[in-house]
Amino acid sequence: MRSGQIARTQPLCPSFGYSRGRPIDRFYIEKFLADHAGDIRGRVLEIGDDAYSRRFGGDRITRQDVLDVRPGQPGATLTGSLADPDVLPAGAFDCIILTQTLHLIFDLQRAVDQVRRALGPDGVALITVPGISAVDRSDWGASWQWSFTAASLQRLLGGAFDPDKVACAVHGNLFAATAFLHGAAVEDVNANSLGLVDAAYPVTIVARAAA
Description:
The structure is a single chain. The protein is globular, with a radius of gyration of 17 Å. Helices cover about 25% and strands about 25% of the residues. It has a seven-stranded mixed sheet, sandwiched between helices. It has a single domain, classed as Vaccinia Virus protein VP39 (Rossmann fold, 3-Layer(aba) Sandwich). The chain contains six helices and seven strands. It is of the alpha/beta class and about 210 residues long.
């Protein structure tokens, strides 16, 4: 981004940069999943669709489930909210991919409790949440409840998981946060600048939580 592009009151793209390429938060989300691809195996649950499961789990997956809160969605094998105790089977999953979902649920602790309950003995949840972000302008905006810090995510997950088995990390810096808020895509910026971490500007917070 050039300096003149930030002297504006409207974003370059109002949908997180999707119209221009890959959103900046997806750069961090996909790096996190690639770094932990070995955890994506066995019976896997993903939210909304199975795109990340297929991309990063491949033939390590023996059974795929998809949870969607909206009834009748193509590809969904489970329907309902994560906060509903009757939605996820207990002890069923080896991996749960939970990207950019928790901020849409008001009762966070109940949702995290259900995620922990749904994992098998050696199961792992791979979780990402927004930090500094615009609020979705489309359907999900009305459900957008929270943004996070690494401290709040660690404390939240520590209420359901053994805190020693939860590892949180921050991705982002001033440049990345500014570009993301303006709706720039990865293709608009120097990707090397995205890799620098300044915890004061958390664009995306990630966590690996093991059962």
